[in-house]
Amino acid sequence: MFALHLQLMNKRYLIVFDDVWNIDEWYEGLMSSGLPDEGLWAGHLRLDRVLPKDCGGSVIVTSRLEEVAVKMVGEENMCRIEPDKDGECCWNIFTDSVTEGGLADDHPTLRSMKTEIVDRCGGLPLAAKTIGEILRGSLSPAETSAPENKLHP
């Protein structure tokens, strides 16, 4: 880790650990390898303490388990993202995923199911995107195209 620290000094970087579920032997080994046993480095197994940040370096850790993220970056560096409360964000993500140009409001069946779709997403953007992509496959091409290409009864 010390060698990585030296390589990243005076550089801009972005390191992303996505969907971390646990701190395993690999991470603990990485964090303890090559670190001096004294001073600033002693006993620090957190990314926020061992990587340089002076030139714009950043680390992003995403996890469904708060205690894992806290161990990696510390409580003071946590940014908690709450589910979408009113569902409007999820509806917009859903419409962008299910139709070209986000035109689900023009689709009577989808419009009538808006409340149910938003409720099923549970405020989670990934759920909205996934549901939209699944439903997109079940709509005909005419139903998912731009309004000028739609056939109106």
TrEMBL record:
Molecular function terms from GO: ADP binding
InterPro entries named in the record: Apaf_helical, Disease_R_plants, NB-ARC, P-loop_NTPase
GO biological process, any: defense response to other organism
Record Pfam families: NB-ARC
SUPFAM superfamilies linked to this entry: P-loop containing nucleoside triphosphate hydrolases
Domain NB-ARC, residue spans: 4-100
Domain of life: Eukaryota
PANTHER family per record: BLIGHT RESISTANCE PROTEIN RGA3-LIKE, DISEASE RESISTANCE PROTEIN RP
UniProt name for this protein: NB-ARC domain
